[in-house]
Amino acid sequence: MAFRKARVLVLCTGNAARSQMAEGLIRAALGDRVEVFSAGTHPAGYVHPLAVQAMREIGIDISHHRSKSVQEFLGQPFDLVLTVCDQAAEECPAWPGQGERMHIGYPDPGRWSRGWEDEAELEAFRAVRDRMRAELVPILQRWLEERWARAGGLDPDPARGYDNGPMSGEEGPMQARVMLERDLSAIRQDVLRLGGLVEQAIDRCIEALRGLDVETARQIIAFDEEINRLRYQIEEACLETIATQQPMAGDLRAIVAAMFCATNLERMGDHAKSIAKLTIEMADEPLLKPLIDIPRMAQIAKEMLRQVLEAYVEHDAEKARAAVARDDEVDALDEQVYRELITYMMQDPRTIFRATRLLWISHNLERIADRVTNIAERVIFMVTGELQELN
User: Fold this and answer.
1) Residue 92 designated active-site
2) 261 noted as active-site residue
């Protein structure tokens, strides 16, 4: 027999942004298996224009949606009541006749809104949209699969078999899975944020080197503390998740990979800091030569870093291998810088101080590329379960 579509109600406070975007995403991705509705505990009376715009950018039109009160749905049976903001979760502790409850909270993108045309404010809506697309839709897809498996092919009726809450014995595994997914998603987001900080540090250290800018170099050295703090925050989150969620197999590999990524990203930050320190040492004299190969090394290393982090998020082993393939380019440039600077020193010993500093800077960039390789190896391990040495 055909499996009845699951009825899902998404709740938020105002039903103006988060729940509206979630409704649109769920309908677009799972509409063949889900009837989805959204409502608010204190409806705002409108759908936020920036939510409409953010969804339109990914081809989903919610401009016809309206802000609805939760009162409209009282008495209706639902297989799942999903809250996407903490206040709604607190204000809806029970739902008469509900099947299951799930809470996945997201920050309010319109909380500090001053107007509806600001690009920075639109970016907040995009961030919530992208996080929902990466996190919420896969969780609901797994929930549907587990619902089908639990039903054994039967068609469960959300209006029967519940005592004002989930079926006995079913809440634990599902809620535990949701909690683990949320922990894993938060860890992934922090790893990406750390990668962004490291890329920023690489950019700025080369900028400081080009202009022998001591003030920028000092800012990079201070900025390294922020990178260190986030690295340790990721490690603590990983250890806490292992201790409290007891992940197995692929989930455990993902957590181990995240810890390894964080360690290597933090070391990349150290290399950028070292370049900043060398820049300060060189600031009293002009650069020995125009910088051509060193900025190129930095650019390739950044591109490798972006690609390997994409591979990490997408669980794409082939993309990780492709990122590592460019390490040879960095090595070749490092060798070229070495030969050129040795020539300078042989021809004029007075250049030794400046030449050796540039050699060390080149070496730091080469090591950044090597650490991308380390991350790629762990991404492949996360995806395949096999530890492989690359290059």
Assistant:
1) yes
2) no
